[in-house]
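To: structure subgroup
Subject: Chain for Friday's discussion

All,

I'm putting the inputs and outputs inline so they're searchable in the archive.
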Amino acid sequence: MSPLRRSLEPFITPVFRAWWRFNRGMTLGVRGVATDADGRVLLIRHTYIDGWFLPGGGVESGEIALESLRREMAEEAGVAARRATLFGVYSNAPGFRNDHVLVYRIDDWSPTAPDAAGEIAERGFFTLDALPEGVSKGTRARLDEMFRGAPQSTHWSP
């Protein structure tokens, strides 16, 4: 993230969140968990926020959640998802009490050219015991639920 963006982020984010609260009754996001042949999980690092995350994004008006997942996985992660299974539905409160995130496990995929237009700083596959520094709490919790048998939560961040 650029120094200018980092300095403006504390002011920009609350403005956008307030706008979403007044203009959207509910927001819906999708995240995908893709693994390679060695069982490593794919994570991304954005240019505009610190940390590592599962690839994904918002479901646009009129878009089907699975279509959104496929679009986001291709754009951000370079993953053409051929088959995905819904793993869980999570409330993203306290970030926004009407925000929900659908997490899908990508069961079958092929590589494609990513097209995130400068949104993604890095992407990579990581073993669960050697995740990069800065993995978000919500991402770590979903990986623990999916791969380590942790009890499944109803909220994105523990």
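Points worth raising on Friday:
Residues 3-148 form a domain with the Nucleoside Triphosphate Pyrophosphohydrolase fold (CATH 3.90.79.10).
The chain has one domain: 3-148.

D.
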